[in-house]
Design brief:
Blueprint (H helix, E strand, L loop, with lengths): L14 H19 L1 H11 L2 E4 L2 E4 L8 H5 L4 H25 L3 H6 L5 H35 L9 H7 L3
Length: 167
């Protein structure tokens, strides 16, 4: 099954450019999110000491909270979503006026929402996809944090602390 995205952009708009730009943005945002793993592994190694080749858990070692290690790892998806709305919605409207010169035709169509659908559907889909990917990564990183951190090094209520730091 193949989805025809050309029905959701202005006539004559270069959909390939937009899709390549989206793929590059998602790749950058996902790569930036890997900074969590770097901070997590660094904090995990700090919990241990070594006697020769034997590794042991340091007495009283406490793992930093999940939200501290997460930091701004998922910010790339927020930046991509905001930028996409700010850049491509005006670009879609501008293409109707300047590019394909179809603005008057679009306004005369029986479905008066066709113009707005073609300008907003793809950008809003990108925002939704960014939110979904960020949520999946948040759950994945939380699972890694909880599974790989020794039980005695965890402070309680890690999941609640994530939401308490949000404004």
């Amino acid at each position: 099954m193949r989805i025809d995205l050309s029905r959701h952009v202005p006539p004559g708009f270069d959909l390939g450019y937009e899709l390549r730009f989206f793929a590059a943005g998602m790749t950058l945002a996902a790569s930036w999110s890997l900074s969590f793993l770097y901070r997590f592994v660094s904090a995990l190694w700090a919990l241990y000491g070594y006697r020769g080749t034997e590794r042991y858990l340091l007495p009283g070692a406490v793992m930093p909270d999940f939200h501290t290690l997460l930091g701004n790892a998922l910010t790339g998806f927020l930046i991509l979503a905001i930028w996409w709305i700010a850049a491509f919605v005006p670009a879609h409207y501008a293409h109707h006026v300047v590019g394909s010169k179809s603005i008057y035709l679009m306004r005369r169509l029986p479905n008066r929402w066709e113009l707005h659908r073609r300008c907003w559907t793809l950008p809003l889909s990108v925002v939704l996809l960014c939110l979904i990917v960020a949520a999946i990564l948040l759950l994945t990183y939380y699972g890694i944090y909880m599974a790989a951190t020794p039980e005695e090094c965890l402070t309680p209520h890690q999941w609640q602390k994530i939401w308490s730091v949000l404004p």
